[in-house]
């Protein structure tokens, strides 16, 4: 009996052979007329309860919309709040912090590299400018 009770409480999904066993079982013939009537009554009761719960849920959802409208909450505000909350959650993750740190360090290195390239180009232009001035002024000095 205990093994049977445990079997009813299992939470694992049915396996292939279990599905075959259930599919091949002829449950209606295994039930007495009294059991069938009890199950039919329970079925009707469950369907009624589900209908009632759907109606209650629908009424609660309408009330929720009314309250949000009165408070000035709309879909855009909710989306903004959800986005802000999600962004904050992302920023607090270890992966984000490490990535941010790595990219920040890479950005600093790139800035330094561009600065060095800029300095080198500037120096080259300065040298070229001096060469051009020098080459232009030399013939002029010789004419005098």
From TrEMBL:
<dbReference type="Pfam" id="PF04201">
    <property type="entry name" value="TPD52"/>
</dbReference>
<feature type="coiled-coil region">
    <location>
        <begin position="29"/>
        <end position="70"/>
    </location>
</feature>
<protein>
    <submittedName>
        <fullName>TPD52 like 1</fullName>
    </submittedName>
</protein>
<dbReference type="GO" id="GO:0005737">
    <property type="term" value="C:cytoplasm"/>
</dbReference>
<dbReference type="InterPro" id="IPR007327">
    <property type="entry name" value="TPD52"/>
</dbReference>
<dbReference type="GO" id="GO:2001235">
    <property type="term" value="P:positive regulation of apoptotic signaling pathway"/>
</dbReference>
<feature type="region of interest" description="Disordered">
    <location>
        <begin position="1"/>
        <end position="23"/>
    </location>
</feature>
<keyword id="KW-0175">Coiled coil</keyword>
<comment type="similarity">
    <text>Belongs to the TPD52 family.</text>
</comment>
């Amino acid at each position: 009996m205990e093994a049977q009770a445990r079997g009813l409480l299992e939470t694992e999904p049915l396996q292939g052979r279990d599905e075959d066993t259930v599919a091949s079982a002829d449950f209606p013939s295994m039930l007495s007329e009294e059991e069938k009537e009890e199950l039919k009554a329970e079925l009707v009761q469950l369907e009624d309860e589900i209908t009632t719960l759907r109606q209650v849920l629908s009424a609660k959802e309408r009330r929720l919309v009314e309250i949000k409208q009165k408070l000035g909450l709309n879909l855009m505000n909710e989306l903004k709040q959800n986005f802000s909350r999600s962004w904050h959650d992302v920023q607090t993750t270890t992966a984000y912090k490490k990535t941010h740190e790595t990219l920040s360090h890479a950005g600093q290195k790139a800035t330094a590299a561009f600065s060095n390239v800029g300095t080198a180009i500037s120096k080259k232009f300065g040298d070229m400018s001096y060469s051009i001035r020098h080459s232009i002024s030399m013939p002029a000095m010789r004419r005098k």
